[in-house]
Amino acid sequence: MGTLWFWLVALMIAAYVLLDGFDLGAGAVHLFVAKTDEERKQVIASIGSVWSGNEVWLLATGGTLYFAFPALYASGFSGFYLPLMIVLWLLILRGISIEFRDHIQSAVWDPFWDFLFCASSLLLCVFFGAALGNVVRGVPLDASGYFFEPLWTNFQLGERIGILDWYTILVGLLALAALVVHGALWVALKTTGPVRDRSVRIARLNWWLVVALTIAVTIASLRVQPAIARHFRSAPWGYVFPLIAMAGLVGVRWAMARAEEWKSFLAAGCYLTGMLLSVVFGIFPMVLPARNSEYSLTVENTQAAGYGLKIGLIWWTLGVILVTGYFTYVYRSSAGKVTLPQKWQ
Q: Is the pLDDT of residue 340 over 90?
């Protein structure tokens, strides 16, 4: 039952990255694809009906962790307290910038909200990537199951590690590049004219950066966390996940060359899903590796009681069905290219 919940949480994280990932990417490219006030309103309108709903998956994932793996929730949320507060403030500032730009029309404030929207989105991409890098690298857990990391130390992988080091920054840069491509393809899918053309151009240029960083991060990850290679060797069927990522990466380029907007966006989603599931498969059964492997948190030593997990699965299934129905309705209602509301024109 614990293994099932492990993979359910992994799928929820993947859903969050796919859905909120494209509007984070749209925010990161906001100032680069939109040059005029009307063009910037197009970018915001492309995510306007879905961005807040997409963040539900982040909250749902946190709630599921609390229910299914309470020891992991307690250890991870206390150890990552500082970066979690930074992420929380970035999410708040991002939401404020989107909403206030709509409600307060001002030649003075509009550029400020635009900058805040872009900067907070960009930093969130990097911090989420660095968080994933911390999980792969391992944290300084002690015998009690708790740890503390400063934001940074000397950026090396030694005895005193921080949230940010050369490896986690590298993973953060890959996350930023990948979500920029994902977001730019979404903006291209939803807009027309110069905004669409610039979005496609940015996606094409960043695709090469994603390829280079994917190779670099893969090599570094196998060196930093040897357990990944051991698990893939012991269960070769897991190579299907890296193959999905590779197919998605090639598919993005193939679809962009043929101006297939939907196919290129879906291919970017396949790449992100394949990369995330490759990491999840590689570290399993660990849920939070420790620098000292004796103290690593695993599915077995962090899961809740079996009876609770069985009952929870029923309610989780009902909740996911409701959420899936809601998202289907919202996305179908906002399908097609965006048109600006009359008050924005």
A: no
